[in-house]
Amino acid sequence: MNTINIIEKILTLIGSLGLFLFGMKIMSESLQKVAGNKIRSILSAMTSNRFKGVLTGFLITAIIQSSSATTVMIVSFVNAGLLTLIEAVGVIMGANIGTTVTAWIISILGFKISMSAISLPVIAISFPLFFSKNDRRKTWGEFLIGFAILFIGLEFLKSSVPNVHSNPEFFYFLKKYTDLGYLSIILFVFIGTLLTIVIQSSSATMALTLVLCFNGLIPFSAAAAMVLGENIGTTITANLAALVGNVSAKRAAIAHFVFNMIGVFWILILFQPFLKTITWFMIGTTDYSTLENSSIPVALSIFHTSFNLINTALLIGFVPLIVKISKKIIPNKDDEEEFRLKYINVGLLSTSELSTLQAKKEISFFGDILMKMYNKTYDLFHSDNDKSYSKLLKKIKNYEDICDRLEEEIAKYLTQISEGNMSEECSRRVRAMLKIIDDMESIGDELYHISITINSIHSQKLKFPKYLNDNVDKMFSLIKSSLINMNNSLSDEYGNIDISKAYEIENKINALRDEFKHAHIEDIKLKKYNYKIGILYSDLVNLNEKVGDFVINVSESIDEFKKG
Q1: Which of 7, 336, 343, 359 has the greatest CB tally within 10 Å of its CB?
Q2: For each of the chain's 564 residues, which pLDDT tens digit applies?
Q3: Which pTM does this prediction carry?
Q4: Do 362 and 428 have their domain in common?
Q5: What is the 3-state secondary structure (H, E, C) of 32-89?
């Protein structure tokens, strides 16, 4: 086999794998579009304990055909504080089981039935759906096209892998590394891990492993070792997603890695007895052994599924320990907090009145988050240390994301309450709370916009004259007072609000804004500072005043709540 032929075969193999991966991507993304909102609801409703979490992770991954998508989703939920680490680990365990469904689909359909023969008719059927104006029908069309492309890619993959009889020299090259005893097992675990990291899809690597084994290029033991490596490699996606997340997100991703590594560790100790058990099971149920190429895809699927089922059964009782290990690996830094819904549990309480009380407590917690976000924004304005500045900027963005999620989750809970039987008084409370959280989310947005403006000043290395800094500080001080007054009203019974104090602070903010605006016009005429500084200074003053507007909106809603 000359060099050109080798390059051609390698490129054909990579292209076939790419086609398979593209089909998997289209299929997975279209299913996520169809089931996206339902998946979110399932996650919210079925993670109250780790056993439900395992079932949820399995179902979601089996539906969307991507354990990576599930784990990235879990990491983002932990990042937003909507799942605890213990809940997240349960879902991740289920995702590991769910991902074995892909191997079964490939084994049963890809090797037993010539799916490539019906792939083009499937695409033909899907095209009218694909061009439909109805989004749901269009998405199902995308799914069918992805499904067809996946199996066309698998067919190319099967034909592009060298045959043992026609390419004995290639087989002997691989065989050198399959007869090294236990070292071969470790080597193929590493190959499986590396391939999954590079391809970023355990499903695609699994398909390649099945084809290599089916064509006789590697024995069953080496293929099983590659499957174990794929279990390790698939954790990398979640860890990459967690790089931009908070400490909780990083811990969730590390917990996934720890769980899979523990599983691979114990199975490697019992590797040969485990494979013999699979062979015994295959002979007893199908009259085929794992030495026959045609039966290997099913044997590998059995290995993959049984390993993940046993690993989950063994470790589900040790979830708190896995969480503890992840906390040791990723310790808290710089007092970074873990955020989640504190008071709203899954489902409504026995009465609407009790449910609104839970929502009220969560809204008070929302106010605490805004206060912390304000403090970080104030610190950002005064920070002159590049390292601490970057951390503050990141934390403010994280707070803004949390505010968005809090508003979304509380609103969803309040909407659920309103769908049930409730008194007119309770209905009025729900309407007031919906208005309150909408304005609170806007406060978070404005504080985030202030941080962006501060970052513009910082990135352009602009220096405000001292009196402009003092002016901004005065605005910050009044905003702090308004937030404190708002939070006092939210934490006490709503009937204790001092609306007159809220109006007094708001009037001071407006008066100061007007004073600074007139002075700014004069300063620009006198060229006391350049145009860029003037624009950014004006933005800071106006954004602070907008925060004050939304704060008074919250206070007015509380007052309406009080008056009935």
Answers
A1: 359
A2: 567 766 777 787 678 767 766 776 676 567 656 655 555 555 655 556 677 778 888 877 776 666 666 776 677 667 655 667 787 888 888 888 887 777 777 766 655 555 556 777 878 888 788 777 777 788 778 878 877 776 677 667 656 655 544 454 544 555 566 566 778 888 888 888 887 777 666 667 777 777 777 777 778 888 888 888 888 887 876 676 666 566 777 888 888 889 989 999 999 898 888 888 887 877 766 655 555 656 777 888 888 888 889 998 998 888 889 888 988 888 866 545 555 666 675 444 445 666 777 788 888 889 989 999 999 999 999 888 777 888 888 889 888 888 888 888 888 888 877 776 667 777 888 888 899 999 999 999 999 999 999 999 888 888 888 999 999 999 999 999 999 989 888 876 665 667 888 899 999 999 999 999 898 888 888 888 888 888 999 999 999 999 999 999 998 888 877 665
A3: 0.56
A4: yes
A5: HHHHHHHHHHHHHHCCCCHHHHHHHHHHHHHHHCCHHHHHHHHHHHHHCCCCCHHHHH
3-state secondary structure 457-486: HHHCCCCCCHHHHHHHHHHHHHHHHHHHHH
Angstrom distance (rounded) from CA 192 to CA 210: 12
Measured distance CA(509)–CA(328) in Å, rounded: 46
Q: Whose structure tokens read 């589900």? A: 316
Q: Answer whether residue 347 is part of any domain.
A: no
Question: What is the distance between the alpha carbons of residues 102 and 293, in angstroms, rounded to a whole number?
Answer: 19
Assess whether 379 and 322 both reside in one domain. Answer: no
Q: How far apart are CA 320 and CA 95, in angstroms?
A: 18
Whether residue 508 sits in one domain with residue 406: yes
Residues 300 and 446 in one domain: no
Q: Are residues 166 and 43 in the same domain?
A: yes
| R_g of the chain computed on alpha carbons | 29
Residue numbers of the domain that contains 42? 3-329
The tally of domains found in the chain comes to 2
* Rounded distance between C-alpha atoms, residue 125 and residue 132, angstroms: 12
Tell me which of 266, 295, 329 is where a domain ends: 329
State the Cα–Cα distance between residues 521 and 380, nearest whole angstrom. 26
Q: How far apart are CA 383 and CA 390, in angstroms?
A: 10
User: Does 276 share its domain with 392?
Assistant: no
* 543 and 441 belong to one structural domain: yes
